[in-house]
Amino acid sequence: MLQTRQWGVSEVSRMLRITPHKLYDLTHATFSNVEQLSIDSTGDSIRPWVIRFENAINNDADLMIAGHYLEASLEGLLRGDSIARATFYNLGVTGGWMMPSFPARLENLPAGPELEYYMRPLNMAVIRPGQPEPTATPAST
């Protein structure tokens, strides 16, 4: 009887196209992979439906004003991997292609005007072929 119940949960998760852990079947789940399973289920089960809804609404002239479009943001569902998210934000801010205010807004944190700047690494210089390498100049005291 227990094996029949287990088989039923697996079949329902296949029909709904969701991972079994979403139906509280944790027989194959570990602490470290549940976070990744949640991210995968967003891409595999929710995202295809969201794309269908976006296309249906965007292609209906009665629902959407000309020149406008609807786009759903699923980033909130993909926030599970906090280490990877923090690494991505850190690389973006210190690499100079993301303002510190951008990660703050994505994380629903206050992003005041003092965070509206770009950072550039000071230990890097542009060296073009055919030009002499830059020399270090002593700092004036």
What's the SSE blueprint?
Layout: H1 2-16, H2 31-58, H3 82-95, H4 101-106
Can you offer a commentary on this structure?
The relative contact order is 0.07. The protein has 141 residues and is mostly helical. The model has no long low-confidence stretch (mean pLDDT 80). The longest helix has 28 residues, at 31-58. Helix content is 45%, strand content 0%. It is built from four helices and no strands. The chain has a domain at 81-129.
Q: Outline of this structure?
A:
The protein is mainly α and 141 residues long. 45% of the residues lie in helices and 0% in strands. The protein has a domain at 81-129.
Give the H and E element order.
HHHH
State the separation between the terminal residues, measured CA to CA: 82 Å
Average of pLDDT: 80
**General form:** extended
Count of helix runs: 4
Helix coverage percent of residues?
A: 40-55%
Q: Could you tell me the radius of gyration in angstroms?
A: 24 Å
> Main β-sheet, in a few words?
none
Structural class call reads mainly alpha
Q: How many extended strands?
A: 0
In the predicted model, the low-confidence regions spanning at least 5 consecutive residues are none
Strand content: under 5%
List keywords for this structure.
mainly alpha, 4 helices, extended
